[in-house]
Amino acid sequence: MFWKFDLHTTSHIDTLLEKEDVTLTEVMDEDDVLQECKAQNHKLVDFLLRAQCMEDLVTFITQEPNADVEEKVKYKYPNISCELLTSDVSQINDRLGEDEMLLMKLYGFLKNDPPLNPLLASFFSKVLSILIGRKPEQIVNFLRKRDDFVDLMIKHIGTSAIMDLLLRMLTCIEPQQLRHDVLNWLNEEKVIQRLVDMVQPSQDEDRHSNASQSLCEIIRLSRDQMFQVQGCSEPDPLLATLEKQETVEQLLSNIFEKDKNESAIVSVIQILLTLFETRRPAFEGHMECPPGMSHPSFSVNHSILEAVRPRLKDFHQLLLEPPKKNVLKTTWGVLDPPVGNTRLNVVRLVASLLQCNTHSIIAELINLNTLGVILDMYFKYIWNNFLHIQVEICTAMILAMPPAPAEPQPDGEQGSAAESALIRHLFQACQLIQRIVDAWRSNEKEQSEGGRRRGYMGHLTRIANSIVHNSDKGPNGPQIQGLISELPTEDRENWEAFISGQLADTNKRNTVDLAFSDYQMQQMTSNFIEQFGFNDEEFADQDDVVDIPFDRISDINFSLNTNESANIALFEARCKEKIQQFEDAGSDEEDIWNEKDVTFAPEAQRRPSSGSTDSEESTDSEEEDSKRDPFEPCNPGSDDRMEVDTGWSPVWTASFDDVPMETGSGAAAASSPMPGTETGWADFSSFSPKCLFFSPKDPLRCNSPVAMETSVETIDPLGNQPNCGRAVAADESSCLEQRSITETVINGSMKETVSLTVDAKTETAVFKRSAFQAHTHTHNHYIF
Q: Is residue 510 included in any domain, yes or no?
């Protein structure tokens, strides 16, 4: 065996730690040091808890390695030190969290000049984060005593690891009261205002990005926390500060009152988009707030919109004059200027503002003709699908959105608009219908000349379908139909021909081409049955359905319609064919399931012992009884033959070997099987019809599958038979259990009783037949 050779490897650390002059680096050079530490090896943990070792571990992760060290092992010890300190060993956490000298050494890493070493910063952030999670009160108290903590965090916000540490303080501190205290402390330290100041053109892109991401995460985390904690009456102080009008105005002034910087502009727009985010309900098919739900996370703060509205003209100007971009060469041509990240994010901001459906914002967008500029960009940059999808979202939102409520009147009542001003602006000022038809014709012309299909054609098809759908079923259907009817006659006829011709053909072609792919990608929703197949009308009806709840999935019937009663009847009938009752007779075909009947034949019909023994020569007992005169006395000297089935039975088997027998007169006779006689037949012609017995020494095994609806009793086969000649030579002192099977047949004045008694211990079977007619009593006893 392998253990015989002691192949089990043991850690060398235990042996190494027994040395008095062992050093920390020697221990850290062992390959299994981390494994042993996480397994809480007592010797190793005690060694690491030494004051000098803990100090060295902190030093490794806070100080730059020597420059002359080889690069591939330069950060070996800092990495192992970080893993040891964050192995989540309670003794190490306690020592590091309660020793203020070690915390000060760790905190000193933030006092280095920027930029910080990103790898060491990740080690520092990881160690301090696990301490915040395991020792929140001690670490928070330590950090609150440091007056320059927030300043240092903002100073190094350009390092991603420091940004992660700041977010960790907002998410991993428990209990709730301690977290609220931390939020109040950070708000008093004006962490939001300091992060806002980082987003301006004078800072570098890393600070722009990390400061913007920090503010976005603070918004999301605060809203999620407020939504989850329903009983929290106090608002999140950081979120409240961010949603203030002066905070948003400060953000916008950072990018518009100074030089145009794309990184700063994009970062500010990202923050605004996060502020405009409204929590989507958890159920599909509902775009509005559920009834009774007035949680602040479902709506946009009005102060944010008021701060953005005066700056809409500046955003509009960015669409016209974005930050300077270099000429971009592509595979199909030159872009001068390209769309750029700035204009793309401005379009996204406009889509979010439209979703708010605020009257003042919509009125300003109409006055500036911002939608017209966006449509111009759509048809100009034919290959920019990022722009196309945003324009499609804008048009779909305008067509399906109810009219914006009017501003409150002086008397306090809020007016309601009869129709959407945006839809009128889109159809009249922007001439959306005419531009769709013209763009389609221009694309077909280019394709007919061998050119490519334009990249916006798919989105243009969806925009046209959206107009058709909303004119028929949308909330603004009458207004859309009225605006189309007001078009010049030529434009209206072109539109009607377009929707009945090119658009219908395109929808049919797209439906057939995408049918199989839709079938593969579809989920088991309520429209699964309707979409299964290639029916064009069913697919076309589903094109405009965005969200369908699982309302008809229960209608699908998975049951199998089977006639169980007919199957049961057929099964029972088949069983009756195979398993017959005792009194059934007349079947000449042998079957393993058939139970053989005991038959008797008169002397005249008995076959000779040397003749054929085929079953067809035997007569049925019932046929024999029908031919016999019911008043004829039974001939005791007749040769009766019993047919014995030698089939399988779980109790006993029958053997018809040479059996020594004794007669009533005492003369012993040995019976040997006659040659040519079929096994399974017993010939009793040479014996008197009296009780005969087996020798107890004979190894006879009895087995008979005969089953009768008879009485079963325990009797002594010899005690009630006065005519028996001799008793069985056996041990009569033991009481043996016997089983008897009796069948009685009455035919007129004839009464016949047939019984079979079996002794399992002595292996003796006694067969008795009694016939009664008038006052005649006949007994036939057979022992086999």
A: no
